[in-house]
Amino acid sequence: MKSLYELYLEHTGKVSDKWKIYLTSYNDILLPFKNKKISMLEIGIQNGGSIELWDKYFHNAECFIGCDINEKCQILKYDNDKISIIIGDANKENVRDIILNKKNNFDIILDDGSHTSSDIIKTFFNYFPYLKNDGIFIFEDLHCSYWKEFEGGYMIHLHQYLFLKN
Question: pTM of the full predicted structure?
Fold first, then answer.
């Protein structure tokens, strides 16, 4: 059984630019799901290579849904009917409805989208209810939460979102 990082190193096809530290951590965290019939939502697919990688790693998966706001992702084609690509902002109601009409419960949700603080919070509130019990919700690149260009900084948005669930 190859690790996620080994599969990444061997990967050809569409580009994936995951960091090694992510791949080794994901391998450990996601190993219990590796041979299961999982469903996965990935928000922010950029070049489309990560979904190919997930398909190799989760060889028994039922479905992979990728969503990206970049319309150039429309050209991404896969020879695998388990993979669906949706173009649009995952936090807009109409796009969320399209995603949830394809699949409304996920084992794994990975947010690699805009990395802005407000989008991360919206994504969590919009999709956490559709995460299966014992599922995993992953947010990539949270270091951006400290960068002003991603709405980050120490405690900048905490006061805005602390009571959102009321």
Answer: 0.79
Sign of CA dihedral 120, 122, 123, 128: positive
Better-scored residue on pLDDT, 155 or 45: 45
- Nearest-angstrom CA–CA distance, 131 and 75: 28
Question: Letter for the amino acid at 36?
Answer: K
Determine how β-strand 83-87 pairs with β-strand 106-111: unpaired
Q: Which of the 8 DSSP states describes residue 126?
A: H
67 neighbors 90 (Cβ within 8 angstroms): yes
pLDDT of residue 163: 38
CA–CA separation, 55 and 40 (whole Å): 10
Task: Sheet with 131-139: list strands edge to edge.
Answer: 83-87, 63-68, 39-43, 106-111, 131-139
How far is residue 123's CA from residue 109's CA, in Å, rounded to a whole number? 10
